[in-house]
Fold Neutral metalloproteinase.
Amino acid sequence: MLNRKILTLTVTTGIILSALGGTPKALAASTTSKWEEVTGKYTKAKGIGHFGDTRILHTTKANNQYYLQDTTRGVKIVTYDGQNRDDIRPILWRDTDKKFYDAKDAIAVDAHYYAGVVYDYFKEKHGRNSYDNKGGIIRSYVRMGDFADALWAGSGILYGNGNSDDGIQTRGFSSALDLVGHEFTHAIISTSSKLIYKNESGALNEAIADLFGTLIEHDSYNKKLTKKKANWNFAEDVYVDGKTFLRSMNNPASAPLSINSGYREPLIDSEGKIHTHYPDHYSKLYKGTEDHGGVHFNSSIINKASYLLSEGGTHYGVNVQGIGKEKVGKIYYLAATEIFTENTNFKDARLGLEKAAKKLYGDNSKEVKQVQAAYNAVGIK
């Protein structure tokens, strides 16, 4: 997720181009800090996340303290504390008794734990060795300021504390597993297809991130790692009211634009068309310059196609037979990492997904036919 009001970011390179206010010091700290690491003994600890779930945490004991530094997976996973300082200097999150139970620990506990869940998903399902497929260190930054957002910043994921802007109360943004997976997927894209963060390629970038965040949520919840139920809404766990969500993959129009703080007013495109809800068909494509050409808006068209391909349904008179989450994940992963290029648009994406399905399941397979049906259903032909 990326708030246009906070910064301009190129996901192609992962380099911050300019900070427009809100978190500039946090961004600078995350990309320029000399990262603290410790050498010590692996120790299993416990912590409590935002929703009261007790997490098993992999930590490193050194200097009589327990640091959120996981060395058990071959890939190092570390969580940093920005300390909510004006002169942000991230340090490793630590505790003196290996019980991360304080209320302030929740944002770090969830960030650290979910980073491991997301890494495990991509390793187990797709054989990927961290975001860069080279064993890159996975860094999370928490307590970086009272902003309501999370973002991949080139060196790691930044999580805002949440706030009550626009009358909507949000909690720490590491509280939502689908959001953690979303940002990690941006990191994968930045080191593979490098989809340019603008217009249709940027919307495709966002849609792929939404999809894998959602697939990770379903995979994790099915393993009973939490009492919560998986769904096809996005980032619902960051909202304190328990009913708000940022986007919906199965019913895009159910999420009004006003919920996204980046869209405080309806979008009016270059053709004078007014957009008040997220689209579910290519005929509703936003054509304008806001939000880098509607990357967070037009992504919902791809989201709807992805949902139909997984779960099935009839949309605009087109029937789609779902092929399931496992196959959808394999098809999109192959396309996103080996077939898509930086300029891939929606029509190219359809062709790339068909190519991936053919490679995985055969030229005349059900999977190929349902990719075609799903994209026909949203008007991408």
In short: The radius of gyration is 20 Å. The first strand starts at residue 7 and ends at 10. The chain has a mean pLDDT of 89. Residues 199-377 form a domain with the Neutral Protease; domain 2 fold (CATH 1.10.390.10).
